[in-house]
Amino acid sequence: MNEHTPDIQTHHQALLDQHLAEFLGAIEPEALALLRKRLRWVEIAGGETLMEQGDPGDALYLSVSGRLRTYINDESGTPKPVREMGRGQVFGEMSLYTGEPRSATVIAIRDSVLVRLDKAHFNELLASSHRLSMALTRQIIQRLQTQHTVNPMPLPVTITLAPISPGVDPGDFANRLAAQLEQQGSVTLIDAKRLEAHLAQTDTGTQADPRDRQQRTTLYLDQIESESDFVLLVTDDSPSDWTRRCCRHSDEILLLADATQPPALHTIETECLGSDSMRTEAAEVLVLLHAADTQCPRNTRAWLNRRPVTDHVHIRPDLERDMARLARIETRTATGLVLAGGGARGFAHLGVFKALQEAGIEVDYVGGTSMGAVMAALIAADQPLDQTLDICRRSFKLNPTGDFNWLPIVSLIRGQRLARIIVQAFQDLLGHKANLDDLWKPFYCVATNYSRAEEHVMRHGSLAKALRASTAIPGALPPILHKGDLLCDGATLNNFPVDIMRKARGVGTVIGIDLSIAARRPLTFDEVPGPWTLLRDRLRKRHKRKYKLPSLASYLMNVSILYSTSRRTQSEQLTDLYFNPPLKRIGLLDWRRFDQAVRQGYDHGKDVLARVETARESTP
């Protein structure tokens, strides 16, 4: 460990003792004394590599303070982030047990302090203490149990707020965010003024050199972090020493920008985040700030094209519910809503959503496939529900699948009518031709890349084009061109994309609305009759028909989702709250039954929520 003042050394030792007590429990005093003796202090700056994938497994580490991220190289050799380690977490122990090389690369997200236990001392300690052996065994079991789970990342503790456009008041924003974060834990807010006040109080009266000032600042920030659930660091409006310190000391960095300003890079970004001397691995989140009466964000892509941020969010600071949404995302307690495809049955999604709203359940992130994608985009637009229902009802009054191709070379339906409906509906709702990243709530939709035979998740680009791709049922509707590939209905591979929501940043709870039809309807005839017989039968009233076969369009729609339907149980298990409206007498192409579908979805939603509430009240 680098030379520090006695106060810093004492503080780090106290943190280490706290972490060891939490990790080991009641361990023999002799073994604990030996462990402390064998540990070696390690300091690593943000952006530095602690270990490389393939290195010999020669030690384990315990994080005393700071944050690190593990990466695993995929088949192409590209490193992919896997998990993050915060204070008090042990890692690197697997290689000591197996003797195998390191399975991952570990890089410091921010300046971090660790302790290291070499392999020889590790074996010595295992032989001396059965409790230590049991504690490490529990660690191994826990790691194996969670290695395939999503979002295995600790909460960000220290969050930096940095203004990157003129007129933004980071202090006011920090106060608003702190008020929301306090519902999850204790919050401390620090800016340059508060730091200077502390340094003045702790000054011994002697001439302090810059190194002494730096160490007292480090001790102060470490002490505050150890005592708080969340620390908000507010930077200056320029790349000052304090701003640089905040960026180095952060688990996440929120870049606060006035959405009405030009999207040019700020000097904080170029000098504190983008320079070689200030390389940081901390997640950078673009927070675009809007007036409370803004109908819909615009030109988000211009901001994102100029900066390689981890994520972006649209916030109206004067709206408490927007600030609450940001706080939930930062505390990993956001709620994601996933909507399955199902043709006209998808109108029921809006009914279930209405029931969720009435129950006070806030939805922070929305995703879906096919018709579920269209309904999810309506919800992500975050407009009054009555207005959304009116626009949707009016838009789908004209049968969207009624423009048949007289020469069906690529598809039975031309798709132009559906395209016009989608464009007009969102034009009426949002006031302009929006992109996916212009929606108030984070949104994704799923298509199938026919050219590459793989699932294609869309979060950027034209909203109307993405929705057309997600609804392009193979054989029924024409595919959509995207960067030289053909995209078609996402339901082919993932009709209920709960797994994608589970991986979304900040999402802790997933609500799913499935539209699968569980009941099987047996047929009473042995052979499919000829076309003329079927035509005569179709001319009869519905209840008098003998051959109750699906129409060609319905048949194509159902066949296209057979693979997704086979994954239904798996998808349901990934939800925390599951809905599956029965939707009596509403078929995939019953576009005129909008109000009936919404009503049945609403009734089902109320019923499920009532049962959940009853179960909660009866639980001791």
Question: Overview of this structure, please?
Answer:
- The chain has 620 residues and is α/β, with parallel strands linked by helices.
- Strands 15, 16, 17, 18, 19, 20, 21 and 22 form an eight-stranded mixed sheet that branches.
- Strand 12 (252-258), helix 10 and strand 13 form a beta-alpha-beta unit.
- Helix 15 (385-395) runs antiparallel to helix 16 (416-430).
- The radius of gyration is 28 Å and the shape is globular.
- It starts with 5 loop residues before the first helix and ends with a helix.
- The mean pLDDT is 86.
Low-confidence stretches: none
> What would you call the structural class?
alpha/beta
Oligomer status:
single chain
- First-residue to last-residue Cα separation: 50 Å
* Helix coverage percent: 40-55%
Beta content comes to: 15-25%
- Most strands sheet: 8 strands, mixed
Radius of gyration: 28 Å
Overall average pLDDT: 86
How many helical elements?
Answer: 24
Gross morphology is: globular
